[in-house]
Amino acid sequence: MSNFKLFCFGFGQVAKYFVKNLIEKNYKFDLITTNTTSTQIKKIGNLNYKTYFFKEDKFDNNLLKDLNSSNKVLVSIPPKNKTDIVLNLFDKSFRTNKFDWVTYLSATSVYGDKKGNWVNEQTIPEPTSKRGIIRLNVERQWLKYYNDFNLPLQIFRLSGIYSLENNIIKRLKMGTLKIIEKNNHYFSRIHVEDIAVALTLSLKKFSTGQVFNISDNYPCSNEEIAKYAANLMKMSLPQKIKPEDIESKMLKSFYKDSKKVCNKKMKQFFFYELKYPTFKEGLNMIRNNMI
Q1: How far is residue 265's CA from residue 210's CA, in Å, rounded to a whole number?
Q2: What is the pLDDT of residue 246?
């Protein structure tokens, strides 16, 4: 017998690691997800689950019944066309909700550029990038449902995510790593396993209307991480390039913002000591478990 029913809008690496962590911790639950190709039955670990077709404004109508009978909802689909497609399409479900846990995964890009200074959840968001501005607007959409309809909501602002599958060591080996020559550029990151644990802990310790920064303990420059990764792998570093020579729009936007993201609220509220408190522990694990 399941103890709860979890509906995941989107089923990328964060949601998958969350579900794997629930399975490892012997939680009893039913799982429903969405995907952008077709409705089907799939398996993760020893758990069979249904995944519904949902792409932009089109979806399998059968998902409504499963959504409305779920206890818990994780939203990891990024904004589309400057708005949140989940809220736009399933407005009624969230207004007349029977949920006891809704988590929206946002990003620390909402803070904007703080010239290398610290930010916490009390810092007024002043996004500078287009992505950050849209993220903040979507956060406000969700918080309106918390305020107007008593939606049991928490928002996780995620720093740069890395994992066994996606990390700087892989980019170094593939020759796609770029080192940008910029002084006083700080950013924060978080290992996907630590996000999964924080989500799991929040099932038992949940405070509606709260926003949490999900970051590790050590903000630093990308160059510092790259040097550590190169030493770890006994590889040479790629040449440095100037910010104005960055070709990728996303990477160029990333280098406009410099900030250190404080994670004290997350650690104190969930009584959690990170498995990977800095990039060093994370990269050592990745080096030892390279796929």
Answers
A1: 10
A2: 67
Q: Output Rg (C-alpha) for the chain, integer angstroms.
A: 19
- Is 254 inside a domain boundary? no
pLDDT for the residue 54:
98
Q: Which of 26, 66, 32 is nearest to 46 (CA)?
A: 26
Coil, strand or helix: which one is 99? coil
Q: Give me the phi and psi of 111, to 5 degrees please.
A: -75, -25
Q: For the residues of 35-57, what is the DSSP string, one character each?
A: ESS--EEEEETTEEEEEEEEETT
Both tokens assigned to 55 = 């792409």
Cα(180)–Cα(88) distance, integer angstroms: 39
Q: What's at 21, amino acid-wise?
A: N
pLDDT digits (tens, 9 = 90+) for 52-107: 999 999 999 999 999 999 999 999 999 998 899 999 999 999 998 789 999 999 99
How far CA 76 is from CA of 11, 12, 68, 156, in Å, comes to: 7, 8, 18, 10
Beta strands in the chain (DSSP E): 4-9, 29-35, 40-44, 47-55, 58-59, 72-75, 101-107, 118-119, 153-158, 160-162, 179-180, 189-191, 210-214, 240-241, 260-261
Interval 146-190: pLDDT, tens: 999 999 999 999 999 999 999 999 999 998 888 888 888 899 999
| 179-180/210-214 β-pairing | unpaired
Output the domain CATH number for residue 133. 3.40.50.720
Structural domain span for residue 17: 4-163+189-217+260-275
In a domain, 224, yes or no: no
C-alpha distances out from residue 131 to 96, 128, 166, Å: 30, 8, 21
pLDDT at 291: 58
Contact 96, 65 (CB under 8 A): no
Total domains in the chain come to 1
